[in-house]
Specification:
The structure is a homodimer. By secondary structure, chain A is of the alpha/beta class. The first copy, chain A, is built from 16 helices and 16 strands. Chain A has a single domain, classed as Queuine tRNA-ribosyltransferase-like (TIM Barrel, Alpha-Beta Barrel). The longest helix of chain A has 27 residues.
């Protein structure tokens, strides 16, 4: 199945839209959230549990899988879907962001990034061609171009140079791509400078990708700046291609970004928070280790349909967390992932029923519990 | 439902028997293995996964649950079954063994054991009455008498004194018991001395319990001694009551003990080994981190019907383990628990089909893969 994207509904008072993104491993209803499956697993969840949470697409990290177990190993074993027993869509990042945030002795060269593995210190050279080679070996449904993730803060000049490198690499990624069943998304950089964001968008779109991502967000910039950049999605990106806001975000960030026309999101917040006992509900954010839940016989969220909420009390979840039990991480992750997926379902329903603006206003005013 | 035990089949050339043990939360086909759910969870498994592994009954640890979250809390929340969402039988130990192996500053007094919590150093006094109070609050289907676990080695005199204390406490437990729907098992101590084991059995049986356990095994004694004591099960314990070999053991230990007439077993081996990447199969014991599995596309055990074996390769399991992923512990635990439960199913089938001795000989000769 080749990649396609259809808009099936639009909000009248914002840029929000309802879409269907078809990939080689099935269709994704957008706006959609992708839980992060860094090392070939969404931490602490069985694939069938991920699916039961309503997840349609997950994100895999090229950097981690390239280093361990190695993309060639995964290719020999039939690709990432088969390796991890997830038969639904997978988007992989290019590895660039992880090199930026995890690897040691990183050195950006015109042809790629030289870095040392955070696992064993071994030296590697990640080029645009290599990023595509790895993602093709993984058989990702959606691949991302290798980009240079501009740090925050950076001067206009630094940002422009970084952006030019990203554009050059985007072109090389496009040339390196072999498989027609895999989609390739371009990444818009440009840091905190609207003129550079605009330039990046124009030049990236000229190259022609299956979708476009905003990159370089959630790297320490002020929230207001992130929102300004998010607002540039609709005016600067083609309406008929999916738009992916990388690394975003909180439930509020997502609702806001949907209103700006974003279709895809990924973030470690639901899974990482879960492992730290921070749980999302429609009422409030719950710190499960809090002594007030010691004898609480109610579920985390009365309105939630997840396995955790249907079967366990806050008191039990608190006990597991305090006792350091693995099951705490499992049950908390199930709940938070389901919370995010339900949020996306609520967004899509609101769009379908032509009441997205009302939903957004209520959600952001009441903070939707967060 | 009140507690009962029926023998429904016997091996002709050993003491092995097939039974049905009925408890307030359902029936258990014996010989049966109980995975250990120390802190209100069989580590890393959802209750529905435990059940899918074929588990009929689990063991809970009174010592841990008494200290955290506290038996009164669990009682308020509807008992241990409801707390942990396991609606099938539960046996709880008395806490004695954990005090012996985990607690600090343990002091044995005629009326009970004074100890300090391994969690916060708080001082507690565990009496026979308290052990019953806690187990009644937990609402265990089968409770165990508080016993004094004789260390190995110990002199005949020390062992006899310890045994007399155990007998005295057994009587106090029986007197303290209130609930008719909960069964109470006596524990036979007597260390390494056949005469004392015999005495303990006779005196404990005189008191009249719903079942009998051999205690004080797996405390460092030589295997041959454990086997000698195991052989005393049938001659010294009533045929019409279930016999529980506490803390045993390896697959070979279990097969041997079944031939001696044991009906119930518990052990941390399958769950703890799983978390350390040691996996049981019919062919061999697999160390999953071994580099030879790096590209192995076969399941752990071709003959196993567990979720792990049906869905994942050794290469994937190795990857998860080496990467330190939580999913490694989950998938490994599912497999090892299923291995143990399948072993019990194979034992019961062999008994049903009148070929247990053949099964036992083949299993112990081929080492059944272990």
């Amino acid at each position: 199945m080749s990649f396609s994207f259809q808009i099936i509904g639009k909000d009248t008072s914002s840029f929000a839209r309802l879409g269907e993104m078809t990939t080689a491993h099935g269709t994704v209803n957008t706006p959609a959230f992708m839980p992060v499956g860094t090392q070939g697993t969404v931490k602490s969840l069985l694939p069938e549990e991920i699916r039961k949470c309503g997840v349609q697409i997950i994100l895999g990290n090229t950097y981690h899988l390239y280093l361990r177990p190695g993309h060639e190993t995964i290719k020999k074993l039939g690709g990432l879907h088969r390796f991890m027993n997830w038969s639904y869509p997978i988007l992989t990042d290019s590895g660039g962001f992880q090199v930026y945030s995890l690897a040691q002795l990183r050195k950006i060269l015109p042809g790629g990034v030289m870095f040392r593995s955070h696992i064993d210190g071994s030296e590697h050279f990640l080029t645009p061609q290599k990023a595509i080679e790895v993602q093709e070996a993984l058989d990702a449904d959606i691949m991302m171009c290798l980009d240079d993730c501009t740090p925050y803060p950076a001067t206009h000049d630094e940002t422009q140079k970084s952006l030019e490198l990203t554009l050059k690499w985007a072109n090389l990624c496009l040339e390196a791509k072999n498989n027609s069943h895999q989609a390739l998304f371009g990444i818009i950089q440009g840091g905190a400078y609207p003129d550079l964001r605009k330039l990046a968008a124009r030049e990236t779109v000229k190259l022609g990708f299956n979708g476009y991502a905003l990159g370089g967000l959630s790297v320490g910039e002020p929230k207001i700046l992130m929102q300004e950049i998010t607002k540039s999605i609709a005016p600067e990106l083609p309406a008929d291609k999916p738009r992916y806001l990388m690394g975003v975000g909180t439930p509020e960030d997502i609702v806001f970004a949907v209103s700006c026309g974003a279709d895809l999101f990924d973030c470690v917040i639901p899974t990482r928070s879960a492992r730290h006992g921070l749980l999302f509900t429609n009422e409030e954010k719950i710190v499960i280790k809090n002594a007030r839940w010691r004898e609480s016989d109610i579920p985390l969220d009365e309105t939630c349909d997840c396995y955790t909420c249907k079967n366990f009390s806050r008191a039990y979840l608190r006990h597991l967390y305090v006792a350091g039990e693995i099951l705490a991480m499992i049950l908390n992750t199930i709940h938070n992932v389901r919370y995010y997926e339900r949020l996306m379902e609520r967004i899509r329903e609101a769009l379908k029923e032509k009441r997205f603006s009302q939903f957004k206003n209520e959600f952001l005013t009441n903070k939707g519990g967060n």
